[in-house]
Automatic annotation (TrEMBL):
Keywords: Phosphoprotein. PROSITE patterns: RESPONSE_REGULATORY. This is Response regulator. Transmembrane segments: none annotated. SMART domains: REC (SM00448). Residues 149-264 form the Response regulatory domain. InterPro entries: Bact_response_regulator (IPR050595), CheY-like_superfamily (IPR011006), Sig_transdc_resp-reg_receiver (IPR001789). It comes from Paenibacillus pinisoli. It holds the Pfam family Response_reg. SUPFAM superfamilies: CheY-like. GO terms for biological process: phosphorelay signal transduction system.
C-alpha cells in the first residue's frame, strides 16, 4: 500500500533504511529511486506503483512520500542497478507527464552500491533534496558517493550520455562539458580524478585543455584522450601535452572502462 508520511531528514532516513533492510532480507538486492516531487497524494502514488508493477512484474515496488522535504521514495525488491535504472525511466516519464517532478531522480541499488548504513542513506537522501530545481535527469548514487569523479568532455551529446551512464552504473561520479572552456571551468570547480576529453573542441581545443589541466598546482589526476584523430602525430602531441592514455573512436566502451579502472586504481 502506498502511504503519505511526514518526517524530517533524520526520520525519513531511518524510514528508508528500514525499507531497504526489509527488502534485502527478502531478496538478494534492493533498488531505490528518490525523486523530488510536489503535490503527491495517495492516489498519485498508487498510480505510479501500478504503472511500475505493470512494466516489470518481477519487481515488487513500495512507495512512500516525505511531505516536508517533498521527496518520493520507491523501493524495489530484487532491484539491481540495471533494472532500477530502467524502472526510473518509467517513473520519470510518469512524474513529468503529471508535472510533479522538481529535480533529478537519484538511483541506487543495495548492496551492489555499498552497505545500506544510516550515513549512506542520509547522503543518498540529501543528494535528492539538493537536486531540487535542476533538470530532471537520472543520476546514480553509491555508498561512497562514487569510487572516483570523472569529467567527460565531448561535443557529441550521445557519446557523453552513453559514457556517463556506463560509468555511473559502476559507481563513478560524472561531470560533463561540451567545449574546452566549459570543461576547464568544471575542472577548476570539481577537480575530478580523471578527465576524458576529445581533441576536437571549440573555444579551447583538447591539447590546450590538457596543458591547462596539467599546469594546475598539486593536481594528481589523469587525462584520457578519446578522439577520432588516429594519426601518430596527434597521439604524440597529446602525450606531449600531458595525456596519460589515448583511445580512438569509434568507441570501444570495454577498452575505455579498462583504462579508466587502471588509472583510477593507480591514483
Amino acid at each position: 500500500m502506498a502511504i503519505v508520511i511526514r518526517n524530517n531528514i533524520q526520520e525519513i532516513t531511518l524510514q528508508l533504511l528500514q525499507f531497504v533492510h526489509l527488502a534485502t532480507k527478502k531478496s538478494a538486492s534492493c533498488g531505490v529511486i528518490l525523486a523530488p516531487c510536489k503535490n503527491m497524494n495517495p492516489k498519485t502514488l498508487e498510480q505510479a506503483k501500478l504503472l511500475m508493477s505493470n512494466n516489470d512484474a518481477s519487481l515488487s515496488v513500495q512507495f512512500f512520500y516525505d511531505d516536508p522535504n517533498q521527496v518520493l521514495c520507491a523501493v524495489l525488491d530484487n532491484g539491481t542497478m540495471g533494472n532500477t535504472h530502467y524502472a526510473s525511466l518509467v517513473l520519470k516519464d510518469f512524474l513529468q507527464d503529471q508535472h510533479l517532478l522538481q529535480g533529478q531522480l537519484i538511483v541506487s541499488s543495495f548492496p551492489e552500491s555499498g552497505n545500506p548504513t544510516k550515513s549512506t542513506i542520509e547522503k543518498f537522501m540529501l543528494q535528492a533534496i539538493r537536486s531540487k530545481g535542476k533538470e530532471g535527469n537520472i543520476h546514480f548514487f553509491t555508498g561512497a558517493n562514487a569510487a572516483a569523479s570523472v569529467l567527460i568532455v565531448d561535443t557529441d551529446d550521445i557519446i557523453r550520455e552513453f559514457i556517463k551512464t556506463r560509468l555511473e552504473l559502476k559507481g563513478y561520479r560524472v561531470h560533463e562539458a561540451k567545449d574546452g572552456q566549459e570543461a576547464y571551468h568544471v575542472f577548476v570547480r570539481e577537480l575530478p580524478g580523471l578527465v576524458i576529453t576529445e581533441l576536437n573542441l571549440p573555444i579551447i581545443d583538447g591539447y590546450q585543455l590538457i596543458r591547462k589541466i596539467q599546469a594546475t598546482n598539486s593536481y594528481e589526476g589523469e587525462v584520457i584522450v578519446l578522439t577520432d584523430k588516429q594519426l601518430t602525430e596527434n597521439m604524440s602531441r597529446a602525450y606531449e601535452s600531458g595525456a596519460a592514455d589515448y583511445v580512438t573512436k569509434p568507441l570501444s566502451i570495454s577498452e575505455l572502462e579498462w583504462k579508466i579502472k587502471r588509472l583510477t586504481k593507480n591514483n
